[in-house]
Structures are given as structure tokens and as C-alpha cells.
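Dear support,

I submitted the protein below through the web form. The confirmation email said the job was done, but the results page showed an empty box. After a refresh the structure appeared. I'm attaching both so you can tell me whether what I see now is the final result or a partial one.
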Amino acid sequence: MKCPFCGHADTQVVDSRANDDADAIRRRRRCLACEKRFTTWETVELRMPQVVKSSGMRSDFSVDKLRTGFSRALHKRPVAAADVDAAIDRIKQRLLGMATREVPSTQIGQLVMQELKRLDKVAYIRFASVYRSFEDVDDFRDAIEEVTQPTRSGRRRPPPAH
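What the results page shows now:
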């Protein structure tokens, strides 16, 4: 680490401590040339992958765009904001876990559909109708069958009481 006072390249770490949230490390350093002390902070920098659109264009990943997609699908649906935030966090973690520099927009769409399927079936159908460009009633019927498939226990979920 270069000294901010004299520019000397050799410094010594005198003390290191994690902050209260344990997401950053504070380091006290001493310059070996001028003996002055200074503080540096070390934090994790996570870079989301670039999104590759179907046209081949690339853009930065945007949590705002992701949240807008969820909001449109979940409009007037009884889903808590905390549940949406958790779904967005799961998508971000999956993307970071891929450890790739680029991700196709279709893959993000699939992740959104998985989360919506867990959150709200109506929102899932709404999103799927736009995402998959439904053209007729049969497309809707197929999507409805997807969300009404039997659970792993082999039983269908009972319809919600109105």
C-alpha cells in the first residue's frame, strides 16, 4: 500500500480489526519511510455479470429492472415486499455463484419465473405470458398446468378458499 503522505511503497500493518458487521476490515498502517500512520479499509467487491440480450447487446445487471419485473407481475397480489426482496436476493446470489462475466437475459428470466412460481401462481402466469410471448389460450392453459402439477407427495394442492 502506497503512503498517502510521502508516496513510499512500503508500509507496515500495525493493527487489523473487522467492523461490527464483519463485512469490512480496518487496517492501521505505518509508512516505513516517513513513519506517519494512516487507515485503510478492505471490503469485498462483488461484480454482477453483464446481461447479454437476445439482440447481442450487453448491459449492466440492474436490480431496479428486476424489481420492476416482479412489481408488474405481482401487481395487486398478496405478496409481502420482504418476500420479493428475498427472491431478488436469491437471484443475485445464483448469478454471483455462477462466477461468470456474462449471463444471457433468458437465464435471468428463467430465475425470475422460478421465484414467481414459488411466490404467487397468478404472478407466474402473468410474467410467463409476456416472457414467453403467449399467442393463444393454449399457451395459457399449458402454463396453468405447470403450476397445478401434483406436488412431490403426489397430491394436488387444494384450490384456495374464496
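Response: this is the final, complete result; the empty box was a page-load delay. The two ends are 65 Å apart (CA to CA).
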